[in-house]
């Protein structure tokens, strides 16, 4: 299995020091996931990581194409590659266990 921490960064500003502490506890790996277009929380996290000067790996998952009409939210998330299984696969690839 994957040992990871999840932080719900639902608003700006966020506690940068706490975020960096958690990232350090997880081998310096950060995966941000947004159910919207890029440039939001993921970019704010990337800025904080860059400004820290520490060696972190950050990858972002977000909406990369225009959503289409779907019957269910699950269908939409599948189309966008943002289902929980997609997030787990991405994390596994980052850790080299996929």
Account of the protein in words:
This protein is α+β, with helices and mostly antiparallel strands. The protein has one domain (16-95). It is built from four helices and two strands, in the order H-E-H-E-H-H. It has helices at 16-25, 41-52, 73-80, 84-95, and strands at 29-37, 57-63. The protein has a two-stranded parallel sheet with strand order 1-2. Strand 1, helix 2 (41-52) and strand 2 form a beta-alpha-beta unit. The mean pLDDT is 90.
Overview features:
single chain, alpha+beta, two-stranded parallel ribbon, 2 strands
The computed structural class is alpha+beta
**Sheet with most strands: strand arrangement:** 1-2
Total E-strand runs: 2
Mean pLDDT metric: 90
Helix content: 40-55%
Roughly what fraction of the amino acids lie in strands? 15-25%
Low-pLDDT residue intervals, each spanning 5 or more residues:
none
Shape by Cα distribution:
globular
Order of helices and strands: HEHEHH
**N-to-C terminal Cα separation, in Å?**
11 Å
Cα Rg: 14 Å
Q: Sheet with the most strands?
A: 2 strands, parallel
What number of structural domains do the residues give? 1
What is the tally of helical segments? 4
Write the SSE topology.
Blueprint: H1 16-25, E1 29-37, H2 41-52, E2 57-63, H3 73-80, H4 84-95
Parallel strand pairs: 1-2
Describe the structure concisely for a colleague.
The chain has about 100 residues and is an alpha+beta fold. Helix content is about 45%, strand content about 15%.
